[in-house]
Specification:
Layout lengths: L1 H22 L3 H5 L24 H6 L11 H22 L29 H19 L19 H19 L10 E2 L7 E2 H25 L17
Antiparallel strand pairs: 1-2
Helix pairs in contact: 4-6, 4-7, 5-6, 5-7
Length: 243
Amino acid sequence: MLTHLLQKVSLLMVALVMGGRASRQSPAQSQRPETPPLVDNQAQPVSQQRDQTAPLVDQFAQTHPTASELRTVASVLLRNFAFEEYQFRSAAEVMPADKYGYRPAEGNYGGVYPGYGPKELRTFGEQVKHVACANFGFAAELDGKKPPPDCDKGGPSPAKTRDELIVYLRDSFKALEKSLGAITKENMFEPIEGPYAGPNTRLGLATVCIWHIADHYGQLVLYMRLNGIVPPASRPNPPELKD
């Protein structure tokens, strides 16, 4: 009787063990990822396929200067300055002459700090002229000279047409590049006086020079986009500046 009972218990245990093995997956099986469905990339429209050429901002970020190239204050400042110069000047060069008088919206907006600038949005050409005048103003302050007056209102330059403004802008970048290139670790904390971002230190004013260009470039981007123009700095193959 006891023998018969033990046989039944043994058979039941075997059945339970075998059933458990059948219901469990091995560790390798449980960790195996599902095979993703095949995707036909060629079936996507060309307009939806990402261009593989990195835009200018990515190309700039991927550039790795040697340590010797960035060991001075001037070299670091000029590296960033060159990037902003390309953005702004290329925008000025790509905008057609008949769009230099473009203003995104008409109207007197008021509320402008007295003496700061116009109460209406600048035209594209006025933006270019303002930055060019400011560049000359910053350069003069860095060089200890008297800056041109009223750059917020256009400044004293007679430049008016697209071609005249592009030359004026190019010359302003050359002047400011020279002034920034003269900044050293010995003089970077020297005090700077003047109506444009002064009082300041030489290094502090240098940072203003760079962000000021970037600030107005952001406005030019909107002007161009509203006219269906892709900014050169955002294109897969940015064109060279016309020097």
